[in-house]
Write a structure and sequence with these properties.
This protein is of the alpha+beta class and 546 residues long. Helices cover 51% and strands 16% of the residues. The radius of gyration is 48 Å and the shape is elongated.
Amino acid sequence: MKISPIALLILFISAIALAPPALAVTGKTLALPEDTSAVVAQTPNQAPLVVFNREVTIFRDVLLGSTPAERAERAKERINRQLAENPSAVISTEDNSLGTLFKLDNVMVFALTPNDVDILHQQSMQAAVSSTRSKLGTAIRESRNSRNIDLILRSTGISLAATITLFVLLWLFGRLRRIIAHRLVSITENSHVMVKGVELISRLRILHMALSLNRLLYFSAVVILLYEWLSVCLAQFPYTRPWSDGLNAFLIGTGARFGLAILHALPSLLTAILIFILAYWLTRVSRAFFNQIERKQIQFERLDAELAVPTRKIVSAVIWLFALVMAYPYLPGSDSAAFKGVSVLVGVMLSLGASSIVSQGASGLILTYSRTFRPGEYVRIGDFEGTVTDLGIFNTRMRTGMGEEITLSNATVFASITRNYSRASEGKGYVLDTAVTIGYDTPWRQVEAMLLEAAAKTDGIYSNPPPRVFHTALTDFYPEYRLVCHAHPIEPKPRAIALSDLHANIQDVFNRYGVQIMSPHYVQDPAKEKIVPEDKKYQAPAKPLE
C-alpha cells in the first residue's frame, strides 16, 4: 500500500503531538516529568521563570547576590520539588522588605521585587504580583492534569478523532479538486480571447491558468486544515497547550491586524477611488467636447478639427496625471518603505530617460501645433521623400513610392529641413519637379519647349495650372532648367511612377529633337564660340512670341 507524502507528514506530526512527556504510572496518577524549559529570549539583565512549559514571570533584578538567571533556576527547582510532593499545592503570597514572597504549601519558592516589574510597559507591583500568581496557578493546574490518565486518554481520543476528520476532509477536497478540474476542461473547450480577429490568449493558456488557480486554492485549503488540526491536537495536552495558544494567537493576531489595516485604509481608499472617478468623468466630458470640434459642430479660431484629436489626448493625459498625484497620498501603503523605494526607483528611471522622451514629445507637439505638415501630405524631410501616414508624439511615419515605410523620430524631423509639396499647389494635388542641365550651345527656348512637351505627354499632370520651366542656375559650363508641374492627389507609388514617366518622356523628346542631355565640362575655350545664332533661337519645337 502506497502512502502519500502528506499522510506521512500528518502521521509524523501526530506522533509528536500525541506523545506526552515520560510518565511513570502509579494507579491513576503519574509521576511529575522532568521539566524542559521553553526557549524564551533572554538578556544578561533578565531571565524567565518557566514552569511546565509556561512562563510564570521574568526576573530583572539581582537579589542577595543572585543573578536573574540563578534566581530563575533555583525557583524552578523549588517549584518542581513542591509539586512532586503535592501536585495540588496551594499558592500564597507574603509581603516583606524585599518585595513579595511566593509560597507553595507555606514553603517559599521565589520572591518578586519592585525591580522585577516591567517599567517599560508601566506595570505596577500589584499588577505584576496578580499576573504572576495567575500564571503560576495555571502552570500548577496543567501539571496536575498531566498526571491524570483519564484526561490523557480523552485527549488522545480527541486527537485521533481530529486526525480522522482531517483525512476525510483532505479526501473530500482532493475529489472536489478533480471534479472542478474536469469541469474547467469542458468549460474552456472553445474559450479564447480575440481582439480584432487576433488571438491574444489561446484556449490552452486559459485552461492552464484556470487549473493553476484551482491547484492554488486546493493547497491553500490543505495548509489551513493542517494548521487547524495541529492547533487542535496540541491544545488537548497540558504540556503542548502553550504551543497551541501561540498558533491561535498568531492566526487571530494576523487576521485582526489584516482586518484593522483594511478598516483603517478604507477612508483613504475611498478618497482615492473618488478622485479617479472624478478624473474618469472629466475625461469623458473632454472627449465629448473635442469630438464635437472634430466633427466641426463647434468651431474655434485656433483649434480646428485636425488638432482636436491630439489636444484631446493631451488633456486626458494631464487629467490622469493630476489625479494620480492627488490620489497618491491616499493609496494604501503609500507611506511604507517599499512604496517609497519603488517611487524612488521610478523617479531615477524617469530622470535617466526623460531627456530623450521629453525632447521627442516636445518636438512632436511643436510639429503638430505649428502644422508643418499633416497626414496625407507629400513632403521631403532631409533625404527622405514620401507621403506622411502618421504624425505621433514621438515619431513620424511616411511611405515612399518604392514600397518603403520610413519612421523618423520627431527630434530628427524637427532638426531637418522640410519641404511640403502638397502646400505649394492650390487645391488638391502636389508639386512634381525635376531638373536637367544642358550646354550653353542649345537654345534655352528649345529646352523649355521640350520640357513642356514632355510634361504634356505624362499622365497624372494637371494642364491647369500649366507646367512651368525655371532657369535656376547659370554655372560655368551649363545652365540648369527646372520643370515644375502639378500632379493629381495620388499615393506615393503612383507618384513615383508619374515621376518615372516624366523622366522617360523627357529623354524621348530630347532624342527626337537631337539634343543631348549632358553637362559639358572642358579645360579650354573651343575653337568656335558656343553661342546660339540669331536665326536659330527658335529651333523646333520652340515658336516665336507673337
